[in-house]
Amino acid sequence: LLLLAALALGGTAAARCPAPCVCDNLRSHVLCLNGNLTAIPSTIPQLTKKLDLRGNSFTVMPVGAFLATPYLTHLDLQHCKVERLEEGAFRGLGRLVYLNLAFNSIALLYQESLDGLSSLQQLILQGNRIEEIQSGAFGHLGSLTVLDLRANALVYLPDMVFQGLQVLRWLRLSHNALHVLGSEAFATLPTLRRLSLDHNELQALPGEALARLDGTTRLDLGHNPITFVAEEALAMASLKHLFLDHAALQDVAPDAFARSPQLRTLDLRENQLQGLPPLAGAGGLARVSLAGNPLLCSCLLRPFHNWLSRARVQAEGTCAAPPALRGRPLDSLRPPEMRCGRPQLLPSPTVPSEQPKTAGSGQCPRGCACSPDFRHGSCENRNLQEIPQGFPRDTRLLDLRRNAFGTVPPGAFPGLKELVSLHLQSCSIGALRPGALRGLESLVYLYLTDNHLSTLAATAFEGAPRLAYLDLDRNAFARLPTGAFQLLPNLISLHLQYNAISELAEGDLAGAGGLRWLYLAGNTIEHIAPTALAPTKMLEKLHLEGNRLAEVPTAALRGLPALSELKLSRNPIKRVGDGAFLPVASSLQHLYLDNMRLEQISPGAFAGLGPKIRSLYLESNKMSNVPNMSNFTGLEILNLRDVPFHCDCQLLPLRRWIDKLNLRVGATCGSPAEAQGMKVKLSTTFQTCPGWGRGEAGGATPDKTRAASKPSKKKRSGKSPNRGFEKNRA
């Protein structure tokens, strides 16, 4: 009876498909793609199993957002501008097996953010801004097999961060900025088979953390600045495939892999190796790739060459020296050819000195809480006026939020050499004294949000050379703290949002040569000097939304060859001129020009931009036409909502182009009067234009529009779907 009642309710609900969605009741699918939804529709059929909400604008996922759809098994929330997941946002989705939250703006995973997803098998969080994961965030995901955290802003993984993932098989952490891993970071992953740590900032093999992975068979560590693999550095009993390609390796110890007896393939391509010693203990090794290394095929390489023959290991690579053997494959060499005239010594590797670990000691300060298991200390919201001392020496995370310190004095954190993350948000701090962080040699994260800081001395960060993530949002800075970044060679992410900064001047970012993400939204910036960003040659993300810029800062973008994301939303820019983005045309992927009351985009404004562009936001502006974008063949998101297009014959090329796109772009006519409010695709004003009917079969019908909004089942070919977009003609 209960089942029949549920079916009856579902049938009733199925009849009401919320606008602007498309409902396939037969397969229990609902698609609401690239619309202007700001909240989850309340009238989605109750029995829906697959819900696709890509390309909307939810910002916050509230508590119980999906309680009305308890039968969901698949939920897609890509590109939805989600910034925060409230604790309990997914409660009630006990049947969900697939959740895609890729390409949003999530910065923090709270302890209960993913509560209620007991059946979830795949969680995709790629391309967000996740900088820190709170302990216990994955504690309710006991069925998860794939966790994708690629392309976020992770710098540090604390101990036990993946606790609860008892059946996880693949953990993807590529393209972050990781350079510190807690020794117990992977301790609770008994079934993990594949770990992807490539494209990070690891400077040494994290052997202690990896030793906890007894069942892992594949490890990707390529594209990390690792220079040396030490003795018995890797103790992974089941490891079969190790990728250390495109690193900075200069030497490998003979017994580096002796404690990984199952190792079959070793990829060492594109390093700085002049040779290798015989690899002791690697009896199962079948293949070593050394392609792209400057191999010195002299007598010094004979022991390795002989070992390859004895152990029957296939080796790839060619000689770089001596000149007589240059270009010869390793497997073609005969020992007599590998001669030494004058002794040629390989450079000795620089082995990082290991600091002896100090055990935790001491009592927890009165009124505070210390967790020896997680190495956390907390004195949150205790109305403290002085920073407490006496935390255990092995403390890794210290939470002092919501107190009333006023000032952080010199030497405020004695004995905390292992501290990685320091939280000082909302502490009424008006001064960070020189030497305040002295001795915090392992500090990576520093949160100073919601304080009263207006300036910083050049020596404010002295003693914290590993600091990579600095959050100064919502303070009182009227300009960037000049000189303060000189002592931070590892700074990767800088937050200075919602201050009172009015300009970026030359020298403001001096010393920030490694900076990748710069967040300056919500200031009052009117001017950016042409050389203001010059020190940040590795910059990838520049967020300038909500400032007072009257034009695109084209000159300041020169010298930023890696910039992939530029946000200029909510600036009073009326016109975008020719070549506005030429300095970053070869790297730019995501461009935000929305909500600017933009009146004109010059025909050559997008010159140089092309297939690399993946998302373009132009919504809520005042222009009546846009330039030719036919070469934007890689677009995944194009938002033209709330733009008053003049639907006459000059707009026909745009109309034809968007008709071929497999995207919902939201373009509507603002004029003439007879077309006002109509979708550009559906407007009949184009039917009187010269050339109409060439490629159109009587115009677009609602059925065709609906079909165009559905994801194509065919693979995208190499040909552009946008080739029909002709040049605008006056």
UniProtKB/TrEMBL annotation:
<dbReference type="InterPro" id="IPR001611">
    <property type="entry name" value="Leu-rich_rpt"/>
</dbReference>
<keyword id="KW-1015">Disulfide bond</keyword>
<feature type="region of interest" description="Disordered">
    <location>
        <begin position="691"/>
        <end position="730"/>
    </location>
</feature>
<comment type="subunit">
    <text>Associates with collagen and binds to collagen fibrils.</text>
</comment>
<keyword id="KW-0964">Secreted</keyword>
<dbReference type="InterPro" id="IPR050541">
    <property type="entry name" value="LRR_TM_domain-containing"/>
</dbReference>
<comment type="similarity">
    <text>Belongs to the small leucine-rich proteoglycan (SLRP) family. SLRP class IV subfamily.</text>
</comment>
<keyword id="KW-0272">Extracellular matrix</keyword>
<feature type="compositionally biased region" description="Polar residues">
    <location>
        <begin position="351"/>
        <end position="361"/>
    </location>
</feature>
<keyword id="KW-0677">Repeat</keyword>
<dbReference type="InterPro" id="IPR003591">
    <property type="entry name" value="Leu-rich_rpt_typical-subtyp"/>
</dbReference>
<feature type="domain" description="LRRCT">
    <location>
        <begin position="644"/>
        <end position="690"/>
    </location>
</feature>
<keyword id="KW-0433">Leucine-rich repeat</keyword>
<feature type="domain" description="LRRNT">
    <location>
        <begin position="16"/>
        <end position="50"/>
    </location>
</feature>
<keyword id="KW-0732">Signal</keyword>
<dbReference type="Pfam" id="PF01463">
    <property type="entry name" value="LRRCT"/>
</dbReference>
<feature type="region of interest" description="Disordered">
    <location>
        <begin position="342"/>
        <end position="362"/>
    </location>
</feature>
<dbReference type="InterPro" id="IPR000483">
    <property type="entry name" value="Cys-rich_flank_reg_C"/>
</dbReference>
<protein>
    <recommendedName>
        <fullName>Chondroadherin-like protein</fullName>
    </recommendedName>
</protein>
<feature type="domain" description="LRRNT">
    <location>
        <begin position="363"/>
        <end position="397"/>
    </location>
</feature>
<dbReference type="InterPro" id="IPR032675">
    <property type="entry name" value="LRR_dom_sf"/>
</dbReference>
<keyword id="KW-0325">Glycoprotein</keyword>
<comment type="function">
    <text>Potential negative modulator of chondrocyte differentiation. Inhibits collagen fibrillogenesis in vitro. May influence chondrocyte's differentiation by acting on its cellular collagenous microenvironment.</text>
</comment>
<feature type="domain" description="LRRCT">
    <location>
        <begin position="293"/>
        <end position="341"/>
    </location>
</feature>
<dbReference type="Pfam" id="PF13855">
    <property type="entry name" value="LRR_8"/>
</dbReference>
<dbReference type="GO" id="GO:0005886">
    <property type="term" value="C:plasma membrane"/>
</dbReference>
<dbReference type="InterPro" id="IPR000372">
    <property type="entry name" value="LRRNT"/>
</dbReference>
